[in-house]
Write a structure and sequence with these properties.
About 20% of the residues lie in helices and about 35% in strands. The protein is α+β, with helices and mostly antiparallel strands and about 170 residues long. It binds ligand MTE and molybdenum atom. Pfam families: Oxidored_molyb.
Amino acid sequence: MGMADTAAKFEQVMTSTAPAIAEHATPGGISLTGDVLRAMSFSVDELRARANVLADTFDLQCFTTDRFIRTVDRYRGVLLKELISLAGLRCDSPGDFKRMVMIASAHDGYAVTFSWHELFNTPVGEQVLIACECGGQPLDAEHGAPVLFSGTDIHSAPRHVKRLARIETRVLRP
Ligand SMILES: Nc1nc2c(c(=O)[nH]1)N[C@H]1C(S)=C(S)[C@@H](COP(=O)(O)O)O[C@H]1N2
Ligand SMILES: [Mo]
């Protein structure tokens, strides 16, 4: 697909998807950008409305210091791969998705990565959630919402991202 076609398609999609366009990102919400078909954003209310997965309780443990931080009650949230699928992955050349990474960054600049394989081709992806509710109670920004975490990580703290702001998808070139 040529550049002009891609731009035309992008514009068409941008004008036809009503609620979720990156420029209209609300404070506290998240945006999906980069190599996606439709740049999208989700407010905290929209994330709450989509929360359909309940995680198990787990221990938050730092990788750098090995420190046990605290036990976290059950998060309810939406799978990261579900939101990425709504935005749609751009795949300009065959196999692009195999070299895709997702950079999840927070309001304070803290950032972690996921790969397409992890999310879509391993059990890890079944437990990567964006949550706004914990232990049956709504979480607010002060308590880290929206929080992204990866339920199968050995050390859970690094990919327990508080105040998630953006998911950027990129195709890496060798
Ligand atoms: N937004 C954001 N999330 C973050 C971090 C950070 O610096 N910013 N640090 C991570 C790391 S390395 C650890 S150990 C834990 C610390 O969790 P705590 O602040 O609840 O003790 O948060 C994780 N999530
Ligand atoms: Mo940490």
